[in-house]
Amino acid sequence: MSAGVLAVFATEEELVAALAPLRSADLGTIETYTPRPIETGTSILPMLILLGGVLGAIASFLLQSYGDTLGYPLDIGGRPDISWPAFIPIAFENGVLVAVLAGFFSYFVVNRMPRLYEPIDECPSIRRATRDAWCVAIHTDRPERAHAILRGLSPIQVEELP
């Protein structure tokens, strides 16, 4: 994509109403920048955290089992070969640790962070997106078509993306 357009709307309702015609026009990539989320969808993060926690607990349990039965077996007072009740607290703690680490790193991967530079940050009106403006960025090869559609949607401001 070589060009783009940034449109600023006054309210959330205007932005939501503008998204349908913009998406149906198939102009290219459309990104919204808003003070709060407008589209609540499902996230993959809870599943990744659960998966990390379960795999961490299982791996910890298996590692302890290996060490107790094959790696360094000890016969102390007729204790069974695998003393699994003693492994549960450590397996749980390691599962929590891996879940937290999986959540931390997955958050960055899912949100494509850290991005230290985005060309859209050079637009003056994008700074208002965290406070009171509802912005939509259209990355397209046909900016004149995007301008024509946006004229009918009456945004507060329209500017070219750098």
Name the shape in a single word: rod-shaped
Radius of gyration: 26 Å
CATH architecture of the largest domain: 2-Layer Sandwich
> Which class do the helix and strand fractions yield?
alpha+beta
Q: Provide the number of structural domains.
A: 2
Mean pLDDT: 91
**Which CATH class of the largest domain applies here?**
Alpha Beta
Taking strands numbered 1, 2, ... along the chain, how are they ordered across the largest sheet?
Answer: 2-3-1-4
**Counted beta strands:** 4
Give the helix proportion (percent range): 40-55%
Uncertain residue ranges: none
CATH topology of the largest domain: Alpha-Beta Plaits
> DSSP strand (E) fraction?
5-15%
DSSP helix count? 4
What is the string of helix and strand elements?
Answer: EHEHHEHE
- Give the termini separation: 12 Å
Largest sheet: 4 strands, antiparallel
How would you describe the overall organization of this protein?
With 162 residues, the chain is α+β, with helices and mostly antiparallel strands. It folds into two domains: 3-39 and 119-160, Alpha-Beta Plaits; 45-110, no CATH class. Helix content is 44%, strand content 15%. The chain contains four helices and four strands; from the N terminus they run βαβααβαβ. It has helices at 12-24, 45-71, 88-110, 143-151, and strands at residues 3-9, 28-33, 134-140, 157-160. Helix 2 packs antiparallel against helix 3 (88-110).
Per-chain topology:
Elements: E1 3-9, H1 12-24, E2 28-33, H2 45-71, H3 88-110, E3 134-140, H4 143-151, E4 157-160
Antiparallel strand pairs: 1-3, 1-4, 2-3
Helix pairs in contact: 2-3
